[in-house]
């Protein structure tokens, strides 16, 4: 994957040699129907570097306990 100078086609694929408006791996999946053959996942982080799950500072519990309205979680896929 590469970022190009072209405003109309901001993404490029160096392996296959094309430019696209969307991320190249999604363009390959949409066009060919298969996942990108050039994709390789990032290596996993070592266990010692994992961040702790503790909240930082005094966090508010209002989102979980506010009786005025329920909280809706929405997953946006772009």
Mean pLDDT: 75
Structural class: alpha+beta
Write down how many β-strands occur, each being a DSSP E stretch of 2 or more residues.
3
Spell out the helices and strands N to C. EEEHH
Oligomer: single chain
Query: What's the helix count?
Result: 2
How is the main sheet built? 3 strands, antiparallel
Assign an overall shape: elongated
Strand order of the largest sheet: 1-2-3
Helix content: 10-25%
In terms of DSSP E residues, the strand content is 5-15%
Stretches where pLDDT is under 50 for at least 5 consecutive residues are none
Compute the gyration radius: what is it? 20 Å
State the distance separating the first and last CA atoms: 17 Å
Q: Brief overview, please?
A:
With 78 residues, this protein is an alpha+beta fold.
Descriptive overview:
By secondary structure, the protein is of the alpha+beta class. It is 17% helix and 10% strand. It has a domain at 1-39. It has two helices and three strands. A three-stranded antiparallel beta sheet has the order 1-2-3, covered by helices on one side. A hairpin with a 4-residue loop joins strand 2 and strand 3 (18-20). The radius of gyration is 20 Å and the shape is elongated. The chain starts with a strand and ends in a 13-residue tail after the last helix.
Tag the structure with descriptive keywords.
78 residues, alpha+beta, three-stranded antiparallel sheet, 2 helices, 3 strands
């Amino acid at each position: 994957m590469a970022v190009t100078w072209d405003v109309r086609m901001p993404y490029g694929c160096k392996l296959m040699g094309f430019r696209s408006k969307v991320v190249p791996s999604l363009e390959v999946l949409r066009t060919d129907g298969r996942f990108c053959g050039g994709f390789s996942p990032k290596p996993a982080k070592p266990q010692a570097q994992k961040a702790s799950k503790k909240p930082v500072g005094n966090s508010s519990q209002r989102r979980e306990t506010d009786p005025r309205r329920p909280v809706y979680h929405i997953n946006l896929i772009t």
